[in-house]
Amino acid sequence: MQNLKLIDTHTHFDVPAFDIDRELQAKLAFDNGVKHLILIGFLAKYFGQMVTCQTQIHGFIQAHKPSPIAHLAFGLHPFYITEHDENDLLLLEQFIKQYQSVAMGEIGLDTFSDEMKLPQNYAKQQDFFIKQLSIATQYKLPALLHIRKAHADTLQILKQQKFQHGGIAHSFSGGIQEAKAFVNLGFKIGITGQITNPNAKKLRTTVLELVKTVGVDSLVIETDCPDFTPICCHQSHGRRNTPANLRFVLEALSSLLDIDKQKLAEKLWQNSIHVLPNLAKMNI
Questions:
Q1: In the predicted model, is pLDDT for residue 161 greater than 80?
Q2: CA neighbours within 13 Å on the CB side: how many for 15?
Q3: How many CB atoms lie within 10 A of CB 83?
Q4: Which of 63, 75, 138 has the alpha carbon at shortest distance from 110?
């Protein structure tokens, strides 16, 4: 796997699930081609944890231990909207000012649960989404979008706010028309380990149609670890996904699209850098 170069565009590698073996998992990721990974925010109280994790990973590299380079993206996750308050938006901006961020995320809209469908909760989600898009615009950051059962409203807000910095529609679950609409707004479609599931027919059909009509330029890959473990890893990993498993996302996508794995990896690398221009500034 040494010849592969991959970017895991969406991880929660900072969470306590990795505290016991982060160094080992970083090595396994690097050995499986993952050269960069993005640490994604979801609650303000954990922003410091993300910075600590990045520092720890930087320490591995300084000690000449194989590890991907970790990057930061702070954001307030819509599914935790009842835990956010206005002070969290101030804290979000403080962290963006203090630490180099490659994007803002994960932000967006989520009506998956009955609680999130409550009018007051959904209105607050929309308010925080708009405010975070404003901050992202101010700092010229792409947006990493979390969207569940709210694609139309998300697209509407992006258009209303005239958001110009693109980003990634993370762990995409919409249909082909929605996928094309996000691509037309400058977003890439984030593909997780769900693509390894033969029963994920809607996702696989959407990806095939998107590549057929728009091209491979529209895709990036991610693990969203510790979630969305590829099917092939369920028994061996006890359902905890890891950055090293990104190669299984690549392999499944390569098989689905009938594109050489190495060529696809190179294209996905370019796509990731294109949509996250702060990575390009780091000369990766």
A1: yes
A2: 15
A3: 13
A4: 75
Contact present, 29 and 244 (Cβ < 8 Å): yes
Task: Return d(Cα 122, Cα 50) in angstroms, integer.
Answer: 27
pLDDT (mean) for 30-50: 98
Q: What is the pLDDT of residues 229-281, one digit of tens each?
A: 888 877 665 679 999 999 999 999 999 999 999 999 999 999 999 999 998 77
Q: What is the mean pLDDT of the chain?
A: 95
- Conformation bin of residue 214: beta by default, left when phi > 0, alpha when psi is -120 to 50: alpha
Taking each helix axis as running N to C, give the angle between helix 176-184 and helix 201-213, from 0 to 180 degrees, rounded to the nearest 10: 50
What are the two backbone dihedrals, phi and then psi, of residue 109, each rounded to the nearest 5 degrees?
A: -135, 145
Helix, strand, or coil (residue 173): coil
Token pair belonging to 38: 């993005």
Q: Name the DSSP class of 18.
A: G
For residue 250, the model assigns a pLDDT of 98
Produce one character per residue of 233-258: b if its CB has 16 or more CB atoms within 10 Å, e if not: beeebeeebbbbbbbbbbbbbbebee
pTM of full prediction above 0.70 = yes
Distance from chain centroid for Cα 72: 11
Q: What is the dihedral of CA 195, 17, 6, 64, to 10 degrees?
A: -160
- Check: CB of residue 225 under 8 Å from CB of residue 12: yes
SS3 63: coil
pLDDT digits (tens, 9 = 90+) for 133-146: 999 999 999 999 99
Phi/psi for 221 (5° steps) reads: -120, 160
Helices (H), ranges, the chain:
22-31, 47-62, 86-98, 114-117, 119-138, 151-160, 176-184, 201-213, 234-237, 246-257, 261-275, 277-281
